[in-house]
Every structure is written in C-alpha cells, then in structure tokens.
Specification:
The chain is an all-alpha fold and about 325 residues long. It has one domain. It is about 65% helix and about 0% strand.
C-alpha cells in the first residue's frame, strides 16, 4: 500500500508538471472545444477552451504502471501481467476518445465519430476484456454484500460486457462541468483501491492510485474556470478502466453505489429522452443530464460539482463498508 500511495503521489507530480506545457501547446495549436448550443447558455463562454486534457491522465498512468511493473520484485511481477488489462482498455478507449475529440474542435469540418462507431468499438473492447477476465484470469463470480461470493458461470461474460459499456457511457455523460468527472472518478478509483488492498491485489492497488494521482494533477488545470477539458480522451479511458477494475475485484455489484453520480446522470438522460418522446415534447428536468438541471434551477457550477463530490464520497464509503461484509 505504501508503494501504491507513493506511485499515486508521483503521478500527481508528473501530471502537474506536464500539465501546463500541454495546456500551452493545445492553446497555441488552437485545439479549442466547440460548445454545444443545446447545453446551458452559461457554458457558451467556455468555447475555445483546450480539450483532450485526458492525454495527461492516461499518459501518466501508462508510465507509472510500466515503471511499477519493471521495478517490482520478480515474485510479485509473476502475478503482475493482469494489470495490463485495465491499462490496455484505458489506452484503447483513450485513443478512440482522442480521435472523437478532434471532431469537436472549433472550425473542424469533421464532426467526430458517430455514436454507432464508438459503441461498436466499445462493444468490441468490452467483449475482449470480458473474455480475458473469464478465461485468462478465471474471474466469474459475484460478491453479494452480507451474503458471500458465488460463481455465476458463463453468464458472467454478458454481465461484464454490460458493466463496461454502461460505466464508460455514464462517465462520458457526467463529463459536462469543470472538475465533475475528474473528481468523481478519482473518488471511485480511491474506493476500489481500498477494496483491492483488502484483497491484496498489489498491482491493482497501484493502478487505482496512479489514476487517482493523475486525476488530481489534471484537476489542477480543470478547476473552475477550466484551463483545459478532459474530453472523451479522458472520459472514455477512465470509465472503461474503472469498470474493469470493479470486475477484477469481484465487487462490480457495488459499482452503481460507488459510482452513484454516474448512474443518476446517465439515468436522467435516458428518462428525459424517453419522457420527451412519449409525451410529445414535455420534460421532467429543466435539462439533462442531472447536473445541468441543478445549474438551471440556480446552483452555481462549483456548487453542483462540490455537492456531487460530497455525494460520491459518502457513496464510496458505503460501498467500501459493504465490501467488507463479503
């Protein structure tokens, strides 16, 4: 745990150091995000803010994990290759997010990847990851708080696919305010880092806290008013790898609680769209996802973010407590 926390602290320092040069580079290259006219009008002033800040997150995590693996004792390294699953998923989805972000830039003729293409890639990645978990790591159980652990057999594979796709989409939807997705994912990874510690999954702990440290370094530049956005480069990478981490601990059943903010944001989006179509244009929320609704009823953006962080922390503590009962 000492080593993992140290890796997290070093990840923060590295991200903090490379952050400003990256922001400057993106600004010089005019890599500014185009803000959708369908969002809150107060967000239009953010037009032109550099995006793809997620690059500093997953680049730092990749470096931290490779260094951790190469410097680990041989006995530990023999158990270490499993950590390259969440890392690989993070890199692949980060690249897809980067490609998509290129189409959201101001003045870009390409309007980004279609949702069908992104979903297709995400499904492919999810299927591969699920098969590796099941056949490569022999993980196919469910941990039920207060009850115990149960082998669920082949049904684990479609469940794992759904967990990865759902979590990735929910985190991407939550990435709509300065520091919101960065802070809530850092909290979720912290919770799963503690759960991995209880299970003595050394490299998984290091991965979790490397992500936490890199996220905190990113938040230095993403704090309101943001100097840079993480974009899908960061959101897709973080959401997909968080799901894989949850599956590797066996406590994926707690993910809707630990990631409660992601769940309610995604659910509010689905509910709003369904209600709008069923009622011929009526709405339940002022605007979906839910964080936009609260801003439109009078909360400032920092208030929304801070209150969602607090909810995330409480839910993460409850999730860890429930994990201890298995």
């Amino acid at each position: 745990m000492i080593y993992s926390l140290t890796a997290g602290a070093l990840s923060f320092i590295v991200t903090w150091i490379i952050g400003q040069p990256l922001v400057n580079y993106l600004r010089e290259r005019k890599v500014g995000k185009e803000i959708s006219e369908w969002g809150p009008q107060t967000h239009l002033v953010k037009a032109g803010t550099p995006t793809m800040g997620g690059l500093m997150i997953f680049a730092t995590v990749v470096l931290a994990i490779i260094v951790s693996y190469l410097t680990a004792p041989l006995a530990d390294r023999a158990r270490g290759p499993s950590i390259f699953l969440p890392l690989g998923v993070m890199v692949v989805m980060g690249v897809v997010g980067f490609w998509d972000d290129l189409g959201t830039l101001q003045g870009s003729k390409n309007k980004g990847l279609s949702w069908r293409f992104k979903l297709g890639v995400l499904l492919a990645v999810s299927i591969v990851a699920s098969l590796v978990l099941y056949y490569g790591m022999d993980i196919h159980s469910i941990n039920v708080p207060g009850v115990g652990q149960y082998d669920i057999g082949l049904i684990y594979i479609p469940i794992a696919i759904a967990v990865i796709v759902g979590t990735t989409s929910a985190v991407a939807i939550t990435d709509g305010m300065d520091s919101l997705a960065g802070g809530t994912t850092a909290i979720a990874f912290s919770a799963y880092g503690i759960i991995a510690f209880l299970q003595e999954q050394t490299f998984l702990i290091t991965f979790c806290y490397a992500v936490v440290g890199a996220n905190l370094g990113f938040l230095w530049y993403n704090a309101h008013p943001a100097q840079v956005f993480m974009g899908d480069t960061g959101a897709l990478a973080l959401g997909s790898s968080l799901a894989v981490v949850a599956l590797m601990t066996g406590h994926w059943l707690l993910l809707p609680l630990i990631g409660a903010v992601f769940v309610v944001n995604a659910a509010s989006d689905v509910i709003q769209i369904a209600y709008f179509k069923l009622t011929g244009g009526r709405r339940i929320f002022r605007m979906a996802p839910l964080h936009n609704h609260f801003e439109l009823i009078g909360w400032s953006e920092p208030q929304v973010v801070m209150r969602f962080w607090l909810i995330s922390i409480v839910c993460a503590m409850a999730g860890i407590a429930l994990a201890l009962t298995v």
